Amino acid sequence: MDEELRKRLKAALEEERESLRRQLQDMGVDPDASGIEGLEFDAGFSDSASSTAERARLLGLTQRLRTSLKDVEDALRRMEEGKYGVCQSCGREIELERLEAIPQTKLCVACARAATRK
């Protein structure tokens, strides 16, 4: 991978990290906390079925955002360690087109397909 592409991918990852952190903060969630801690519900948030469903939806969204944030931060760490762009399953280089489409990916196309089939 040439230096220009690496810089572009790093910039994309950093931008995505900031976007995810902002989304969590906008929800009133601490992006640095682990799990689903930090998601607060006000005292008026009743215990009806609809509020329970909304709470579940918000918790699910929080978990997805935190998982995405972790994936992006892991990709940035791998980049700093010189391990970025290498499939964590088979050890081959990840296709450049895949990295450009999904910069935080850990798997090459073949391994991602195999993982999806499981």
Description:
The protein is mainly alpha-helical. The protein has 4 helices and no strands. The chain has helices at 3-26, 49-81, 96-101, 109-117. Helix 1 (3-26) packs antiparallel against helix 2 (49-81). The longest helix is centred in the middle third of the chain and has 33 residues, at 49-81. The two termini are 30 Å apart.
What does this entry show, briefly?
Helix 1 runs antiparallel to helix 2. The model has no long low-confidence stretch (mean pLDDT 88).
Termini separation comes to 30 Å
Low-confidence stretches: none
How would you sum up the major sheet? Answer: none
DSSP helix count?
4
Write down the secondary-structure element order. HHHH
Percent of residues in β-strands: under 5%
Shape: globular
Would you count the extended β strands for me? 0
Overall helicity: 55-70%
Rg from Cα: 18 Å
Tell me which oligomeric state these chains represent: single chain
Q: Mean pLDDT, nearest integer?
A: 88
Structural class: mainly alpha
Question: What labels would you give this structure?
Answer:
118 residues, single chain, 61% helix, 4 helices, globular, mainly alpha
Helices and strands in order:
Elements: H1 3-26, H2 49-81, H3 96-101, H4 109-117
Helix pairs in contact: 1-2
